[in-house]
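Pipeline run #58 for the internal structure catalog. This entry was flagged by the ingest filter as a single-chain record with no existing model, so it goes straight to prediction. Upstream metadata was stripped on purpose; only the residue string is passed forward. Reviewer on rotation: M.T. Logging verbosity set to normal.
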Amino acid sequence: HFFYWLAGHLWDQGEEDRSQQAQWLGDAITEERQAKAGPMNLLWRRDEIEPHPPEEKPVHKFFPLIHTAALRTGWNRKDSLFVFKGGSADSPHRHLDLASVSLAIGEDRLLADPGKGEYSFRYWTNITPSISTLWHNTLVVDGSNQQDPYTFFGDENRRQEVPSACRVEEFLQTDFAVLLSSDATSAYSDQLRRFRRHVFWLCEKEASSPSLIVLMDDIKAKDMSIKRDFALHYHTPCDVEILDQRGTALIRGKETELQLQVLASSDCFLEASEPTQIGGACLRRLTVHAYWILRHPDLEETSKVQFVTLLIPFVPGEDRANISTHKEPDLVAAQVKRRDKISTLLFPRLWTGRKFKAFGITTDAQACLVCQDRQGLKAFLLLKGREVVVDGKKVFSSRQQQNYCWVKKEGI
């Protein structure tokens, strides 16, 4: 019904084309969900507005005003949608979910936001669960929430000097690859000096799901004299199988499974738990809470931390990807082998512009992802880099140190 209201609002403003597109989207959602004509739909839908689909449906879209990106493989029922949530928490209606992600493939919500709770008196009088960082797929530091701009909900007179926000600083795209770079430091301004989350997204030609999604978290604590606890949270309504306590899990949807591997610059371990009881009552739909927790006795090891999350969807019955990892004091690297494709990631811990090497890939970038098959190079993504060398052969060189997203013309 929101889109029906929006269609009417745009119609009254004289924006006929956009109004008809909003009307079409409302009809499409109602039909997709096989929804009956509820009272809100009947209230807001106006028959004089003729629905028209947009002329072009982009597979990827960055919304600069709210620093949020949506990455699709297509618009069919079995296609996928990956969302990166940025923006600002400086609003009376807010969720402390900055730099969080979600992933849906077909009808499977593999990585999910908590969604709306059960409507009850307690739901309407207790806002904590719905805005808690613990309920979203992002970084949690010391078990606490991201910075709340207001001391009390809706208190517009008690603001922080630095808004709690996540800014998408770079968004590069092709039909088959996306590079996204963000800075969410201000969302943890009392704990962290730096929190940057980067996303690499790859999809093969005519595929309904991405072949690989990489999340890279670059973290630096504010006070090195305090030992911090860092945890990555991933929530799903699907079943979860723990394959390896060191960071490997399998999320089992009905039509798609998700292989999830977390690497860290220091040792981490994996826990999975049942829904958390908050305030004596579980206000959310039953979900599994998976935690990747990094704790280390050495203060130095918890003052500068990196996480790498590999998300690899596949069809049940298909062989899982073969993942090899490589760690050095200043480097986290991984190689993913799946069918005839090999994807190699290098993520230096202390990036200074010098070159790093692993799995036959050499680069000076802050982060580098190279995709190959038997015929050679298919794609590469560089974060603040100038050069890529594959098996001793220089495949890319530039005078400018910046972000690059390159895919072979025929796709991956």
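catalog note: The first strand starts at residue 60 and ends at 63.
catalog note: The mean pLDDT is 82.
status: ready for reviewer M.T.
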